[in-house]
Request: fold
Amino acid sequence: MGVQVSWDTAAEQPPARRAAFASMTAVAAGDKEGWLALFAADAVVEDPVGPSMFDAEGKGHHGREGISAFWDMTIANVERFEFTIRDSHAGGDEVANVGTITTFLPGGYRVDTDGVFVYRVGEDGLIRSVRAFWETERAMATARQVAE
Reply:
């Protein structure tokens, strides 16, 4: 997998922003174990927030086991990721990133998911929660086949 995370960051960043960047980098690299190591044992991933095809009850994926299963169900099925963060707002132990996640799927398909991606970390710098605000219908409307 080629790694592409496009984000203009300065050397010193708040812990939540550093964790978000590390998360995106691990996903782009296809590094499941490295990604899981970024999370606290009791972390929760809501991607997207609310009921979805990935989480029928909309309660999120809990703990490393649940987050690992989320990876297997979603991230593992993508050939390549590109993250473009257009803006980032840090406050306290959280950061809200505004951007687009472009996924390249089997069969030459590409989908652009615009959203707001909120990360919260603990004092140890581990991710306590990821809340991804994006709309399935809006993302799927961008699906297109691209030349390989």
Remarks:
- The CA atoms of residues 14 and 91 lie 8 Å apart.
- The mean pLDDT is 93.
- The longest helix spans residues 15-29.
